[in-house]
Write a structure and sequence with these properties.
Layout: E1 7-11, H1 16-27, E2 31-36, H2 39-51, E3 55-60, H3 66-80, E4 85-88, H4 103-130, E5 134-139, H5 151-171, E6 176-183, H6 190-193, H7 199-206, H8 215-226, E7 237-240, H9 244-265
Parallel strand pairs: 1-2, 1-4, 2-3, 4-5, 5-6, 6-7
Bound molecules: nicotinamide-adenine-dinucleotide.
Pfam families: adh_short_C2 (PF13561)
EC number: 1.1.1.47
Family: Belongs to the short-chain dehydrogenases/reductases (SDR) family.
Length: 266
């Protein structure tokens, strides 16, 4: 029961990673407040956690709206008595090059992926301070560590990585830790289901572990960062990517060199 007595807000909770995080947190004893645009899926998830004996409440919530953030945090305090964990997990993607980027899709991607977590921290952190402190986990991407062929998404996720470090130093005096995680392609998510043709298959060709990650693997990492087991970790950026961001280039090169050597020998 690594989150016994804790209250956690998870955004984007109706999506692939959010569902896994919500279930993992509830199983570890947290009361979970689940927010997402998608009411049916969010209500269903909260009901299933309650049916299994957990404490869960869904709120329809667009993370770009500060007023809605205030509602979510106020209701969380009323329902469960405080806030200890915030997971800024909601995200969107535009999949457009710089040349093709229109200002509406740029603005929406930046708003959801970067302004949303900023507003979440602005509103939830004082409530976390009043609850004795806690942990914020910002879900960035490998697109926040290296370039991806997607202008707004890459810029928003690099921004979130930097914002997380600013938050880590700002909130340290409130006993709140802030870290970012950086997944590569994660199976069973809207992001992968709606990816461009060949999206997942090509990823497996360049990820040293040669497979996609799972929502459960991400939830295990987020749970660790949310819990007191990571009590000395703040301002960190943690890749969860099968070796992609640290070693893909060298791994692909080794495979190419072997292929070229074999061809030359033949
Ligand atoms: N799936 C991947 O391959 C992958 C890789 C790297 C990073 N990520 C990041 O992981 C996070 C979780 O995404 P996922 O993989 O579970 O994908 P997903 O599409 O299954 O879930 C995303 C969820 O966010 C919700 N959402 C979108 N805009 C919102 C808004 N304005 N307000 C509230 N909720 C909103 C969606 O309704 C959806 O339920 C995202 O931040 C994403 O950028 C995903």
């Amino acid at each position: 029961m690594r989150l016994a007595g804790k209250v956690a807000i998870i955004t984007g909770a109706a999506g692939g990673q959010g569902v896994a995080e919500a279930r993992a947190f509830a199983e570890e004893g947290a009361a979970v407040v689940l927010t997402d645009l998608r009411a049916d899926a969010g209500e269903e998830l909260a009901a299933s956690i309650r049916a299994a004996g957990g404490r869960a409440q869904y709120f329809q919530h667009d993370v770009v709206d500060e007023g809605q953030w205030r509602h979510v945090v106020d209701e969380t305090r009323k329902l469960f008595g405080g806030v200890h964990v915030l997971v800024n997990n909601a995200g969107t993607i535009s999949r457009l090059s710089i040349e093709k980027t229109d200002i509406a899709s740029w603005d929406r991607t930046m708003a959801v992926n970067l302004t949303g977590p900023m507003l979440g921290m602005k509103v939830a952190a004082p409530a976390m301070r009043d609850s004795g402190g806690g942990s914020i986990v910002n879900v960035s991407s490998t697109a926040g560590l290296m370039p991806h062929h997607d202008a707004a998404y890459t810029a928003s996720k690099w921004g979130l990585r930097g914002l997380s470090k600013t938050a880590a130093i700002e909130f340290v005096e409130w006993n709140i830790r802030v870290n970012s995680i950086h997944p590569a392609q994660i199976a069973e998510t809207g992001f992968v289901r709606e990816g461009l043709p060949g999206h997942a298959e090509s990823a497996c060709q360049i990820i040293p572990m040669q497979r996609l990650g799972t929502p459960q693997e991400c939830a295990d990492l987020v749970l660790f960062l949310a819990s007191d087991q990571s009590s000395y970790i703040t301002g960190a950026e943690i890749a969860i990517d099968g070796g992609f961001s640290s070693g893909a280039t060298q791994w692909v090169r080794t495979r190419l060199r072997r292929d070229i050597a074999a061809q030359n020998k033949g």
